[in-house]
Amino acid sequence: MSKARKLRVLIAKPGLDGHDRGARVIARAFRDAGFEVVYTGCHQTPEQIVSTAVQEDVDLIGLSILSGAHTYSFPKVVELLKEQNAEDISVIGGGIFPLEDIPKLMAIGIKKIFEPGARLKDITDWVSENIQARGALAA
Question: CA-based angle 123:53:64, to the nearest 5?
């Protein structure tokens, strides 16, 4: 009997946003919940994020942003995933967003947006329940 592999999560800080405490906290929460975690650090371009996601064979990209550049960087990550034939890598976001932007981000393919105050366990539980390993075959 084979055991399913752990989900691999990439946590990234796109753009000039240098406030990474939340990203580091969520990366640790994912690790503590049993996920494999890749953390890219601050000041990543969408191209760097997607390249790392593909190279590291992740199942999920978690974007953390506080700078307001989500209307550029989130759609660009989704677009680049499609260009790389990697649209099976799910994308979620966390940070500070105007409420009216959240439906727009979901419409372009972001699976979930977590706002400030979201409980870490709620985030890791949501991922466990809603994200599957890429290439997972039904038994």
Answer: 40
